[in-house]
From TrEMBL:
<keyword id="KW-0808">Transferase</keyword>
<keyword id="KW-0902">Two-component regulatory system</keyword>
<dbReference type="InterPro" id="IPR013767">
    <property type="entry name" value="PAS_fold"/>
</dbReference>
<feature type="transmembrane region" description="Helical">
    <location>
        <begin position="81"/>
        <end position="102"/>
    </location>
</feature>
<dbReference type="InterPro" id="IPR050736">
    <property type="entry name" value="Sensor_HK_Regulatory"/>
</dbReference>
<feature type="transmembrane region" description="Helical">
    <location>
        <begin position="114"/>
        <end position="139"/>
    </location>
</feature>
<keyword id="KW-0418">Kinase</keyword>
<dbReference type="InterPro" id="IPR036890">
    <property type="entry name" value="HATPase_C_sf"/>
</dbReference>
<dbReference type="Pfam" id="PF02518">
    <property type="entry name" value="HATPase_c"/>
</dbReference>
<dbReference type="InterPro" id="IPR031621">
    <property type="entry name" value="HisKA_7TM"/>
</dbReference>
<dbReference type="GO" id="GO:0000155">
    <property type="term" value="F:phosphorelay sensor kinase activity"/>
</dbReference>
<feature type="domain" description="Histidine kinase">
    <location>
        <begin position="376"/>
        <end position="569"/>
    </location>
</feature>
<dbReference type="Pfam" id="PF16927">
    <property type="entry name" value="HisKA_7TM"/>
</dbReference>
<keyword id="KW-1133">Transmembrane helix</keyword>
<protein>
    <recommendedName>
        <fullName>histidine kinase</fullName>
        <ecNumber>2.7.13.3</ecNumber>
    </recommendedName>
</protein>
<keyword id="KW-0472">Membrane</keyword>
<dbReference type="InterPro" id="IPR005467">
    <property type="entry name" value="His_kinase_dom"/>
</dbReference>
Amino acid sequence: MRLFDNVVSLFDPAALSHPYVPAAVLAFVVGLLAIGFVGRLERTSQTRSYLLYAIVHTIGTGAVFGEMVVAVPALKQLFGLTTYVFSTCLGSVALLYFAMVYCDRTDLLARRSVQAVLAGTPLVLLSAALVNQSVHVIAGPSRLVASGPLEVYGAATRPGGYLLGLYVVALSVYSMWPLVDYYRGQSGTLLRQGRILVAGFVPALALMGVGIFDLHPFPHIPIETWGFSAGVPFVLWGLFGYGVFGTVPVAHRRVVEGLDDGVAVTDPDGVVLDVNERLSRLLGVDPDDAVGDPATAVFEETPLAHAPPVAGRPDEDVRVEVDGETRRFHVSQSSLTDGRDIRVGTATVYSDVTERRQRERELERQNERLDQFADNLAHDLRTPLATARMYASELECKHDDPDAAQVATSLDRMDTMIENMLTQAREGATVTDPEPVALADIARDAWDRLDTEQAHLEVQGERTVDGDPSRLRRLFENAYRNAIEHAGPDTSVTVEVTEEGFTVADDGPGIPESERARVFDSGYTTRPANTGFGLSIIAALARAHDWRAAVGESDAGGVAVRIITDAQATLEEGAVVAD
């Protein structure tokens, strides 16, 4: 009971009848709501900068309420100091920082003058307060003064105080400039976003001027701290109505201006938010005229009239007449969502793929010619080979000649070599229609297709690459066969998937470093019974994907066949890359 009485004695009963106390409570609660709502959004530089701005002002607002309701002078002084530090020293700086981050004005943030303002303003204001303790140029001596039915600490404002007040107001007004500069000339959703944000700062600036220059009935209560809370309803309106933290200027600018392809950004209603210069030249329209109009109307009577950026269109190639030439464009879309996964717009990208498609068709023709050549070569070789095998078989049956059996074995080996050469030629054809392939899954699938009862496989890591699933499966199969043939049927094979590619390693005897330079040569083998095409086929399959194949030593001392999918990757010492 005594503890309760002690706690109650800290509060001033007169505060209950002061007209500003309900306003202080409301301002503090609204600040907490802003922190709560924005804090639940996806963490971006924009939401983080707004949270900083909200937290600074909410602490200052809470401190004003605390100074009004407590009865202990020391606590009143502490709350008053907290208000000065957070609302006066940090508030305007936090607002300026938020405005620049929200509009992606990194060019301004990089300026030394702006950095000096951001870092120097709090230091100057704090230093001025310390100097004022001995030389009262900002305000007179601080003392308890009556403010309606309660007492707060106050002091008479001196000329220096008004100058500092003007500086803080001017800095806050300047903070609106990045927003106004960006949103002027916009239309549609972006224009509505801008109006809401700017409207939210107007009451904040108005209360700041009223409070700093004591233009209200209780001048010793710093109501300027409530300005932030007065603007919160506008921010929440923009958040839930127009995706203020969804299609923000930074995302909008980087999507539209950061690509060499043509880009159109539309809102959920199909209204054009922006088109970049590349697309505006293709359409033959002025970007300023396009923004704010329905996409179907903007694209009508243009070369892309049959492919407007309406939401939900499939990814496809379209033909477009450009300067009397038929060009092919690939049209793709991405939904723009806010932190709550609510769609706030659509980005449609028009990529000129004319040359790429021409190269793909040429590669397909080359692959077809290569297949035809390989088939003809195999047919021309196998016809006399079949005749030779028939004579060798007759010779072996009629005369039981041991040399005939050796000839038959050599002919069988030749047939296997022809098959391997045919495989190598076909597998080396460039992959023209890749698709996403999970390396770990394809590695296990290839293992399951082989007779590997005594051997052991371990797959480490996971990654998806663009490739031909059937050829990747054969690549792994050849790597496994190579490991089992050279390391033994009970070998342990490890597949390690990394960001740079993947490695198939065994624990066998390995390949001497002096021999590694030849391992990718067609027909090279250390065992007479083998054909020597395993690693060369692996290299051909890698080249078909525009990758590199290399051979080195595994951690267990065996062979490590490495497929490098990253052109910038580096190789370990002693590894040999296929030509």
